[in-house]
């Protein structure tokens, strides 16, 4: 098949920090503004609205033999600018999606906070000629599958533990809650506010007394359970010292919710949930966004899967995801050979010893709740 006849996707992303914003400006020779103080730099990027295609996947090969290609387009704003200036950020995401469509993309995926602004993809979909997806369905599928696989590897029966879910009433957390509640888990949900929407959602689950508790306090929540899913839009909310020994954290957020430490705990497992790898049939090596070779976020995996399937439809949009679609995209992605169990922590492979130390801390007697056990 000729390259230019391959089905194409676009993936819209943003810078993950101000540091990354500066580096990106320098790298692409876009502006001496990279050297401005932070406030002036952000103001410059906000008013200029810089968008650039920054990465090409020229040949993604599925295990079924199907092939697609695509490009990532970056909106040069930092994460906090997306949350503070949502109208402007949405405008720039729409422009980036239109650039991708003009390049030939028939499916557009929205990475990280690009999927949150504009009513979680709906506005972008309405203003772009190509199909749009947030990629959140595969993200939920990947996070739950990774949870199941890791529990098995640790030899833990999760039904004997309380599961904490942080980031309500966010799109990803709502779907994970529905799935885990239906499987009979005991849950603690962390929401900053108790809205009518959250109340209605809880009622719709029909939970029995004691099955679900809601709190606004992250610190107390992470000390009420050792299995934690976290997917907030703000990031950097969990200091590793807050965690109980033996905690297993599925950190889905971008930017990450668990704060990176140069003295990581030895007795906890922090998993980059939602991080997957390209099918092994893809022989080319892509180092996307500082990740290990051929690792990608699962929202990009959903975009690629829909492109391989040539399903030009609005797959995941809005706050409430459809459980059947989560299952469907998971099955399709697995059929194409995307890999869900090359586990990473802070983007690096997880040593076997971290699994055993965490399992030991979780099941062993020395469950000291204070201070934790650090790398020397
Ligand atoms: N790994 C991947 O492949 C992947 C894919 C997609 C998305 N993501 C990431 O996943 C995260 C969630 O995405 P989403 O689509 O579910 O976003 P969302 O719908 O905006 O949900 C985020 C939720 O987090 C809550 N929140 C923010 N700060 C909080 C805090 N300090 N404590 C408790 N809750 C807090 C927000 O509450 P309020 O309603 O009060 O603001 C909001 O309800 C984002 O970081 C996104 O970038 C990762």
Q: What keywords describe this structure?
A:
five-stranded mixed β-sheet, 2 domains, 376 residues, alpha/beta, 19% strand, six-stranded parallel β-sheet, globular, Rossmann fold, binds NADP nicotinamide-adenine-dinucleotide phosphate
In words, what does this structure look like?
- With 376 residues, the protein is an alpha/beta fold.
- The chain has two domains: 3-135 and 278-336, no CATH class; 138-275 and 343-363, Rossmann fold.
- 36% of the residues lie in helices and 19% in strands.
- The chain has helices spanning 18-27, 38-48, 79-84, 86-103, 117-120, 122-126, 136-154, 171-182, 196-205, 218-221, 298-308, 323-336, 352-363, and strands at residues 8-14, 51-61, 67-75, 107-110, 131-133, 162-168, 186-191, 212-215, 227-230, 248-251, 269-272, 275-277, 295-297, 344-345, 348-349.
- The strands form four sheets. The chain has a six-stranded parallel β-sheet.
- The relative contact order is 0.15.
- Bound molecules: NADP nicotinamide-adenine-dinucleotide phosphate.
Short summary of the structure?
By secondary structure, the protein is α/β, with parallel strands linked by helices. The protein has helices at 18-27, 38-48, 79-84, 86-103, 117-120, 122-126, 136-154, 171-182, 196-205, 218-221, 298-308, 323-336, 352-363; strands at residues 8-14, 51-61, 67-75, 107-110, 131-133, 162-168, 186-191, 212-215, 227-230, 248-251, 269-272, 275-277, 295-297, 344-345, 348-349.
What would you call the shape?
globular
Instruction: Give the rounded overall mean pLDDT.
Output: 93
SSE sequence, one letter per element: EHHEEHHEHHEHEHEHEHEEEEEHHEEH
By secondary-structure content and strand pairing, the structural class works out as alpha/beta
How many helix segments?
13
Unreliable spans are 366-372
| CA gyration radius, whole angstroms | 20 Å
Strand content: 15-25%
Helix percent reads 25-40%
Report on the biggest sheet: 6 strands, parallel
Oligomer: single chain
Question: What ligands does this structure carry?
Answer: NADP nicotinamide-adenine-dinucleotide phosphate
Spatial strand order of the main sheet: 8-7-6-9-10-11
Number of domains: 2
Please report the distance between the alpha carbons of the first and last residues: 54 Å
How many distinct beta strands? 15
